[in-house]
Each structure stands twice: as structure tokens, then as C-alpha cells.
Amino acid sequence: MLDINLIREQPDLVRAGMQKRQIDPAPVDQALSLDSERRKILVEVETLKSERNKVSKEIGKMKDEKERLAKIEASRNLGDEIKVFDDQLRVIEAELHDVMAVIPNVPYEQVPPGGEADNITIREVGELPKFDFEPKAHWDLGPELDIIDFEQGVRVSGTRFFVLTGAGARLQRALISWMLDLHIRQGYTEKYVPYLVRERTVFGAGQLPKFKDNLYKDHEEDLYLIPTSEVTLTGIHMGEILAEESLPRYYTAYSPCFRREKMSAGRDVRGIKRVHQFDKVEMYKYCKPEDSDAELEKMVADAEQTCQDLGLPYRVLLKAAGDTSEAAHISYDIEAWSAGCAEWLEVSSISNVGSYQAQRANIRYKPADGGSPQPVHTLNGSGLGMSRALIAVLENNQQADGSIVIPEVLHPWMGGLEVIQKESK
Fold first, then answer.
1. Of the residues 74, 103, 227, 305, which has the maximum number of CB atoms within 10 A of its CB?
2. pLDDT of residue 66
3. Residue 255 forms beta bridges with which residues?
4. Contact 12, 52 (CB under 8 A)
5. pLDDT value of residue 263
């Protein structure tokens, strides 16, 4: 959530940012109007309260009973007026909160305008694999090797679910364990986090109200299944004031992620590219505002290392404003090449959110020089997300006989297995 002072002082900047995202900037004017009305009422309330305090003091000094009763009635009338204004104020503040909640963060100047088609490729790393045979997609490789079962997923849960079996399940677990250990070596502290969180936690992370229809909710309890552990890693310091000397804080967490994918109906329906449940290893940072841009570049490098160590060709994209998370100033996507699908698949998205989440979740830090508490800056990124990382590993390492060579860095987690091949029955 943006600071209301920014909207008051630089409304044109906020409007321009929304237009850059291809969003109607009308909420800016609504916020300004409600804020102006709110401040007028606050002046009225403070004036009436001051007058009531004055009358109360006069009552205490009065000896004439008739005059005292008249003053008491006047004080009661002032109280009634204050209550009317307080009721109006609650309504206006609720409306202002709802409007502020849909105003996105301001994109950085270097973020290009437009949508997904306007993303800019910053760099490509690694050579695309070459085969002397026609590489297969994972939706063929998996069933042939008995490591992905789509029929079982549909049987128990419906479309866009799948079951990993044997070496397939172990490979995914190896990827997760290796990534967590890599991020720990990069300086992150591992967290095991709840997968069910309160609505205020989801709001604080910026997922509500925009993604309400894409979240799974327990309607008997105030609990949502997380769409990413970014939500929980935001919430763990909600309402806290952190010491400046404790910053930056680096966290990493594995979690399953749950998304209804309603917005993506009809897209990527084959295989496991876009599913309702998937695993992800998350990177998350809390830092001082002046450090967040440098921390973003480090996080991008940390995510790139996962691709490099796995031997995956990848590219880094600067996302256009309309394709950038509404909570973020700037976002980079990392896309890994997948030979069987013959396409680039997003395996990580890394964002500098600035103070947007901190404003919503009330997370601040106390400057060491004794100044007043200030909102922290937060950053988040996948490091990496399954199941697309799994797809890239399977498809890029396939052999002519249908087997799959396991990347060397994963061998310690595979119990000595170096090649996945069809078992004879």
C-alpha cells in the first residue's frame, strides 16, 4: 500500500505509474477526495472535542444549578455531534482503505510500459541443448519412465493435478533440498512456515483484494492456503519494529503453493506447466530503503546460480509495467529453456517491493540514530519454482533411449542414482 502522503504530494506520479501499467488511474482521484473529506471531518471533530473540554471545565466551576444543568445539556449535545462525525469518519476511512488497497506501487523509471509482450530480455546465459534425435516433452517422457502419472492426479483431484512416482518424486525432493542448502550457503536463514494464514496476512503481502478469486480459502475459518511462502515470510514480522542493526534479514523457505489459476484458463493445459498445486523454494529479504536496489541485484544473482549449477540455459527479462506485480517497483523474470516443450519457462520472478508490503503489514525498523521508526523495504524471489524447474531438468537432460541424466549437483540427494530409466517389469 502506498503512503497517503505520496498520493497527496505527487498524485501525477502515481497516476502515471498506473497508466504505465495500463490501469485506470481513477482510484487516485477517489483517494484524494476521500482523504480531503476525512481531514475536514477530523478538523470538525477536534474543534467540537476542544469545545466540549472547555464546557466540562466550566461545569466544574459553576455554582448556579440552572446554569450548570444548561452547560451539561450543551456538553451532551456536543457529544452527540461528535458521535455523528465519528460514525461518518469510520465509513470514510473504510472506503479510503479499500481504495488505497487497489492502487499499485509506482514502477521504476527504467521499467518499460506495456504488457507481457513488452518485456525486455536483459541477457541469455548458456547454450541451448542439441540433440541428434527429436526431444520429447515431459508429458511423454514422464509417463514412459513411470515417474509422472497424470491419470492418477485426475482421478483423485481433477484436471491440472498430477502424481510424481519413484525417481520423479525423489528428483523433485532432491531439487528442493539442494536449493534450500544452496540458499543457506548464500546467506539465507531457512524457515519452516505455516501453509494456512489469516486474511490480514494475505492482505499484508499484497495478494488481496486483487487475487481473491485465485486463492483457496477455508470458509469456516479465517484461513487461506498460501499461493507462495512470500505471504508467510511477509507476515512473520507483521506489526513489528525491527532494529536497524538486525537488517538486512535474508530468509528462505520451501512450501507447497496453491492457486486456482482461473486467470489462466485455456493456457498451458498440457503437462505440469500450470497447475493448482506446486512446490517452490522462496527467497525473501528485509532491508533498509537505501539498500533495496543492491539487494535486488544480489537476489537475481542468487536465483541465476540455481540455473547455472543445474546446467540450465536461461534468460533474464526485465518485466514491463503491466506484467509486473502490482506490489513491486520492478521485477525480473528468469526463464529456463525447456527442450521438449521448445519454449522458455518462467522458473523465477524476483521483485523489489519497496515499502508497499511494509505499509500494509505495518513492518518498520528503528534507526540506530534514534529517529522515528520507518517502513522497511522487502524483496522476494523464487529460487526456484517447481514444477517448471523439474520440466527443464527432465527435458534438457533426456537421452536418445528415453532415459534422463540427473544433474551432478543433485546426486547426493538421489541415493547414488545418476540416470533415470524405465524399469523392466
1. 103
2. 78
3. 280
4. no
5. 46
Q: CA-to-CA distance for 1 and 4, rounded, in angstroms?
A: 9
Question: pLDDT tens digit string along 139-162?
Answer: 999 999 999 999 999 999 999 899
How far is 158 from 47, CA to CA, in rounded Å?
Answer: 62
pLDDT at 424: 56
Contacts of 391 (CB under 8 A, 6+ apart): 138, 271, 272, 273, 338, 340, 341, 345
- Please state the φ and ψ torsions of residue 348, each to the nearest 5 degrees: -155, 145
Q: Which residue positions in the chain have pLDDT lower than 50?
A: 263
Q: How far apart are CA 194 and CA 366, in angstroms?
A: 27
C-alpha cell at position 11: 498524485
Q: What is the pLDDT of residue 131?
A: 97
User: Amino acid identity of 412?
Assistant: P
Question: Residue 267: phi, psi to the nearest 5?
Answer: -100, 140
- Global confidence as pTM: 0.91
Angle between helices 292-310 and 167-185 (to 10 degrees): 140
Distance CA 411, CA 396 (A): 17
Cell numbers standing for residue 23: 490501469
Task: Provide φ and ψ at 252, rounded to 5°.
Answer: -135, 145
Tallying the residues shown for the chain, one arrives at: 425
Task: Give the chain as a 3 state SS string.
Answer: CCCHHHHHHCHHHHHHHHHHCCCCCHHHHHHHHHHHHHHHHHHHHHHHHHHHHHHHHHHHHCCCHHHHHHHHHHHHHHHHHHHHHHHHHHHHHHHHHHHHCCCCCCCCCCCCCCCHHHCEEEEEECCCCCCCCCCCCHHHHHHHCCCEEHHHHHHHHCCCCCEECCHHHHHHHHHHHHHHHHHHHCCCEEECCCCEECHHHHHHCCCCCCCHHHCCEECCCCEEECCCHHHHHHHCCCCCEEEHHHCCEEEEEEEEEECCCHHHCCCCCCCCCCCCEEEEEEEEEEECHHHHHHHHHHHHHHHHHHHHHHCCCEEEEECCHHHCCCCCCEEEEEEEEECCCCEEEEEEEEEEEECHHHHHHCCEEECCCCCCCEECEEEEEEEEECCHHHHHHHHHCECCCCCEECCHHHHHHCCCCCEECCCCC
